[in-house]
């Protein structure tokens, strides 16, 4: 998972390490101009004539610094190198281009490379291993800053508000209906009772599809006939949940194209009628920047609170997973990692860092 990003980050660390190391190679001992300038001239002189007089009190002498100790002067200079812009500029440009090729949003790619440059330039290093370690940590920090978005704790929300009403939005083909079934399974495993609202009354077969999932999971489905008012379906589902003491209402909506104004207005009506506690955008991780653009449009139309990315297990690039939270300032709460009802995982930034830098 995310093999492309992982490879690009690893290559960046290697390139910076190689470039900084190659620019700090010291001259061999004895070949430095300073060494030659300090050599005493002893040619054609007897040994006793060039022997210097030793002081009477040897205990007062300060020991010379060893090779591994710090100090000042030219010896310290040859043991230490300050990273410059020249050392990293070309490599960071290559990294930015590589991130864009992996469907990372431009703003995110620029943030990562800028922050990495700020962390590296001016840093004093002594060994290639130190350069590598410091570059890796600086890169991790830049990625962590991108992924750091306030999270949503679903079980905690259920404790505060019952029924918790969650409305799912997204375009056709992203796996939204299957994702709703997975989320239902997630709540069932936590001992909670969900209700599903079949509010996608436009697409042929949508009610039957979500109904099949509900039957397999043993979850109550609230549905009307095809073409019915989606807001009415959602309202009935919430009313049922309140009357029956259910914990969660999961509202399936039509896979509206983000450019379809009429359908966006219909979704806004559902929001006005049921006042969901969470509006969750479901996007396809494989579509990269398209998923980010879709999420932004849905956010403008109805406001979204969180994101679920589907097909993450097949996403070698990782651009959407890395970018979407930062771009719309909303957290990823789940990632789909397979076709089964249990193939959904809670998203944690720490997990993605491990995937990228392990």
Give a description of the structure:
Helix 1 runs antiparallel to helix 5 and helix 6 runs antiparallel to helix 7. The chain is built from 15 helices and ten strands. With 358 residues, the protein is an alpha/beta fold. The radius of gyration is 31 Å and the shape is elongated. About 15% of the residues have low confidence. Strands 5-4-6-3-7-8-9-10 form an eight-stranded mixed beta sheet, with helices on both faces.
Q: Which structural class fits the helix and strand makeup? A: alpha/beta
Mean pLDDT: 84
Strands side by side in the biggest sheet: 5-4-6-3-7-8-9-10
What portion of residues is helical? 40-55%
* Total number of helices: 15
Number of E-state strands: 10
Beta-strand fraction estimate: 5-15%
Provide the descriptors you would attach to this structure in a database record.
358 residues, alpha/beta, 15 helices, 51% helix
Give a nutshell description of this structure.
This protein is of the alpha/beta class.
Tell me the layout of helices and strands.
Blueprint: H1 3-22, H2 33-38, H3 47-50, H4 74-79, E1 81-82, H5 85-101, H6 106-120, E2 124-125, H7 128-147, H8 154-160, E3 164-169, H9 176-189, E4 194-198, H10 206-217, E5 220-222, H11 230-244, E6 248-252, H12 261-274, E7 278-284, H13 289-301, E8 306-310, H14 319-328, E9 332-336, E10 344-346, H15 349-357
Parallel strand pairs: 3-6, 3-7, 4-5, 4-6, 7-8, 8-9
Antiparallel strand pairs: 1-2, 9-10
Helix pairs in contact: 1-5, 1-7, 5-6, 6-7, 7-15, 9-10, 11-12, 13-14
């Amino acid at each position: 998972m995310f093999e492309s990003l992982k490879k690009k980050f690893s290559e960046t660390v290697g390139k910076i390490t190689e470039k900084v190391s190659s620019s700090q190679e010291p001259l061999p001992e004895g070949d430095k101009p300073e060494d030659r300038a300090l050599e005493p001239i002893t040619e054609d002189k007897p040994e006793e004539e060039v022997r210097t007089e030793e002081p009477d009190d040897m205990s007062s002498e300060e020991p010379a610094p060893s090779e591994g100790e710090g100090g000042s002067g030219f010896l310290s200079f040859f043991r230490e190198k300050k990273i410059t812009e020249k050392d990293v500029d070309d490599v960071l440009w290559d990294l930015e281009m590589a991130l864009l090729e992996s469907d990372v949003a431009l703003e995110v790619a620029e943030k990562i490379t800028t922050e990495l440059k700020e962390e590296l330039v001016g840093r004093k290093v002594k060994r290639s291993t130190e350069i590598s370690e410091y570059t890796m940590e600086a890169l991790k920090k830049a990625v962590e800053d991108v992924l750091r978005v306030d999270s949503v704790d679903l079980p905690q929300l259920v404790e505060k508000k019952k029924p918790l009403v969650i409305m799912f939005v997204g375009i056709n083909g992203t796996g939204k209906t299957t994702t709703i079934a997975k989320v239902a399974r997630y709540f069932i495993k936590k001992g909670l009772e969900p209700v599903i609202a079949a509010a996608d009354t436009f697409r042929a077969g949508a009610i039957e599809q979500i109904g099949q999932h509900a039957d397999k999971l043993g979850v109550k489905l609230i549905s009307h006939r095809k073409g019915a008012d989606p807001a009415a379906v959602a309202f009935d589902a919430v009313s049922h949940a309140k009357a029956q003491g259910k914990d969660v209402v999961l509202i399936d909506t039509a896979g509206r194209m983000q450019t379809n104004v009429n359908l966006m207005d219909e979704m806004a009506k559902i929001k006005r009628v049921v006042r969901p506690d969470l509006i969750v955008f479901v996007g396809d991780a494989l579509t990269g920047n398209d998923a980010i653009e879709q999420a932004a449009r849905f956010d403008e139309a109805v406001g979204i609170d969180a994101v679920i990315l589907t097909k993450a297990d097949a996403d070698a690039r990782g651009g959407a997973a890395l970018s979407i939270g930062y771009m719309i300032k909303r957290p990823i709460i789940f990632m789909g990692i397979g076709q089964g009802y249990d193939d959904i995982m809670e998203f944690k930034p720490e997990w993605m860092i491990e995937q990228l830098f392990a």
